[in-house]
Amino acid sequence: MFTAVFNSFESGMIYAIMALGVYLTFRILDFPDLTVEGSFVTGASVAAIMIVNGYSPIIATLAALGAGFLAGILTGLLHTKGKVNPLLSGILVMIALYSINLRIMGTSNIPLLSQKTLLTNIQDAWAKTGIDDVLNGLLTAIGLGDSLPKTWSILLMMLVITVLIQVGMSVFLKTEIGLAIRATGDNEAMVKSFSAHTGNMKVLGLAISNALVAFSGALIAQYNGFSDIGMGIGMIVIGLASVIIGEAIFGAKTIVRATLAVIGGSLIYHFVVTLALRVDFLQTGDVKLITALIVIGALLLPLITEGRKVKARKKKRLMELQFDHKSLEEGK
Amino acid sequence: MLHLNGIYKVFNEGTPDEKLALQNLQLQLKKGEFVTVIGSNGAGKSTLMNMVSGKILPDAGEVLIDGQKVSGVEEHQRAKLIGRVFQDPMAGTAPHMTIEENMAIAYGRTNRRGLRFGVTNKRKAFFKESLETLHLGLENRMTAKVGLLSGGERQALSLLMATFTNPKILLLDEHTAALDPSRAELVTQLTKEIVEQSKLTTLMVTHNMQQAIDLGDSLIMMDKGQIIFEARGEEKRALTVEKLLNEFQRIKGEKMNNDRAVLA
């Protein structure tokens, strides 16, 4: 049980990077970008084929990031220069990437289990430090000693990487270019009248978003030990689920809070799915149904809580007003 | 400062919906001149504004700003020279961003955007100082989302954002039409102050004849894509709504007589 939950946090951390990419297009640019389903696999494919061919895992992962960036540019140009509808641009690039990904890999599945990957490298380096023993000792002390995690390195490393990306993104969105990107999603005519090239802003936003998605895909391939042509299916919904759950639970008042919420949302999503799959009645194939239910729940939750909050606020204020009125009358 | 020479613009040419939006339009604004534009719906006022801003390009003729030919320059490029306030109070600001972030975007109009922070302490002080001139208390709400402001406040903010970087040309597109009378009065007053203080070359479209008479140095009346009446200087100052209406009737009447003569 503990191991399963621990693993869900590891993968939740890695998928959070993908979710941050989805947040950038879906929320900031207001652009429902389906390229994600393809670019996620592109990242995995590029990293896998390069690692198998003996490139350093770091270079392979960075190359994956670059490939995602290009995929985003493609969707962006199709929409801004070709005036193709946003949804359709994404779908077209997604479908094109399916064939391209097959070409990149040369086959529909590349196993990485026997390869040195970024994650195995981190594990090896980490094992020498002996921090695992200390942390596992702590776990044993609080009575969770029967199923200890193999390594803490992946969770901690991914935490560092994801938070670094989150910080970088928050800072970027406060720069002049970042503000222009945000305004492009908020009021395009306005930012155009202040001499920003909204087309370029969209292309840049899509490129960054898909770079993050592909980066996440490359890490997932190394984490799971394989790259597969079908691993991107449903990715956009998982990304959206993370964004929406995060917003519902943690709020999205400022950029910093919203991006942190996306990470939290991703962790919670993977946690809930892991828990759900441990119920005997449910099977692995039910994941998509569970996902849909979680997202619906996260969409309805704010409606209910917000309604209650407003009601309570109104009631309180009304009582204050009536009280003021009464004391005024008595004062006469 | 602003020259429009022989501008033609036709929409849907060659179809039954063909519309001759601008016909051989000539217009010149001197530096610091404030011109109000009136005319009925479909007279070509909006086309004229979009022609200056670059949202639409002329079929023939040229637009010059400060001696520089801009007819072929794209809208976002041209926006470096032009400040614009739209009729819709929601159009000029980004609702999900804060007041200071909106101002930072407006501040970036004249220079190339980079990876510097949009809102710095130095800029914040400048934004605050500018907001104080509106006397709306917005300087104390700089981190509030603009979507929370009222229509009048948003329009005043739009006006400030369009002007505080001293554009070469200011375009006001019926910018008080969607406000209630007292808010409209406030924004009109602010417009007057800002334009006078910064000596901005301004082109303002309005449906309100009184406003067109009260504001500005010159007035032009448009009909069917042409300027049919122009009043500058002393003539403009002596105008009243009644005179203007009479003038409109006279010109329309003359035209109709001409048409009759042709048809007969």
UniProtKB/TrEMBL annotation, chain A:
The keyword Transmembrane helix applies. The chain crosses the membrane at residues 12-29, 58-78, 85-104, 152-173, 203-223, 229-251, 258-277, 289-307. InterPro entries: ABC_transp_permease. GO terms for cellular component: plasma membrane. The keyword Transit peptide does not apply. It is found in: Cell membrane. Pfam families: BPD_transp_2. It is a multi-pass membrane protein. Its main location: membrane. PANTHER family: ABC TRANSPORTER PERMEASE PROTEIN YPHD-RELATED-RELATED, BRANCHED-CHAIN AMINO ACID TRANSPORT SYSTEM, PERMEASE PROTEIN. This is ABC transporter permease. The lineage of its organism: Bacteria, Bacillati, Bacillota, Bacilli, Bacillales.
Automatic annotation (TrEMBL), chain B:
The keyword Membrane applies. It is found in: Cell membrane. This is ATP-binding cassette domain-containing protein. Residues 2-249 form the ABC transporter domain. GO terms for cellular component: plasma membrane. It comes from the Bacteria. It is a peripheral membrane protein. InterPro entries: AAA+_ATPase, ABC_transporter-like_ATP-bd, ABC_transporter-like_CS, ABC_transporter_ATP-bind, P-loop_NTPase. GO terms for molecular function: ATP binding; ATP hydrolysis activity. Keywords: ATP-binding, Cell membrane, Membrane, Nucleotide-binding, Transport. It holds the Pfam family ABC_tran.
